[in-house]
Amino acid sequence: MTWPPEAIPVGTALVKIRSERDRMSAIERRIADFIVENAQLMRDYSSQHLANALGISQSSVVKFCQKLGFKGYPDLKLAINEAVIRADSNGSAQPQPQDASQAAAQGYGLWLRKSEAEEATRLINPPGTLTAVAEAIGRARTVFIIGQGEDDLHARTLALRLAQLGILTVHNFDAAHMTASLSAARPDDVLLAFSEHGQQPVLGQLARHMRSQRGKVVTITRHSANALRAQADLAMLVSAHDERTHIEPLLYHSAMQHLLDRLFIRLYEADGARRTRLQETLERIQPLLDP
């Protein structure tokens, strides 16, 4: 496995590790999990200490660092230490009551984790990917959008945004209805399929149906190998990880929304006619919202 040897800005080391975890080997995942879970302690660990703690060779640790884009372990440790220092500082020098301080710390922690998820998602969706998706949508006569369960929340939001730009959309959460709709798809039309884990067989069937119509399939899933992503012409990915089951969905939703916002902005800025349509649509909608 080879990762792009990118230069990693200070403070994004932990984000990079989390975003790449799904593509790592078993040994690399062990190193990654240990570093993320023990980031506060890394300043006291040499590469040999880390290797001994995990029962692996020191060269495995060095190779792990280099695959992430660092020159070696000292550079990775420095970046992690500085990220930890910044995360520990909430910018307030004034003492606060215990309850207020705890609430502020929780709010800052959630903001930080959301920011990390959004940054990790940005890193795994380079500008070229978003440009290709935006161009495919721009060429399509019709964009078909589907998501089931909670995925439909994101599908519905994007369908509304595209419609406001004057892009013809067919949105449905029912697979049978979407199958019927896809029978009218033309070459270069686009199917956008939302699925967090990409494991619903019915979405795979819709993807195959769309490709038989010579349309394009765009998937939006987690940053993991999955059956739906394997059938995509273009894949957008979301990275959001947290061991707390009540927090991870919040991170996923935030990172997903940020990704879709970036796509919307590209579509808006690429075409003056779309900008005009959006303004006209908002002007038509506003009287309906006035009391």
Automatic annotation (TrEMBL):
Keywords for the protein's UniProt record, in alphabetical order: DNA-binding, Transcription, Transcription regulation
GO molecular function, one term: DNA-binding transcription factor activity
Designated name of the protein: MurR/RpiR family transcriptional regulator
Keyword Transcription regulation assigned: yes
Family matches, as Gene3D superfamilies: Glucose-6-phosphate isomerase like protein, domain 1, Winged helix-like DNA-binding domain superfamily/Winged helix DNA-binding domain
GO biological process: carbohydrate derivative metabolic process
Domain HTH rpiR-type, chain residue ranges per copy: 11-87
Signal peptide (from-to): none
PANTHER family xrefs: GLUCOKINASE, HTH-TYPE TRANSCRIPTIONAL REGULATOR MURR
Membrane-spanning parts: none
Coiled-coil ranges per UniProt: none
Domain SIS: 133-273
Listed SUPFAM superfamilies: Homeodomain-like (SSF46689), SIS domain (SSF53697)
Organism: Thermomonas fusca
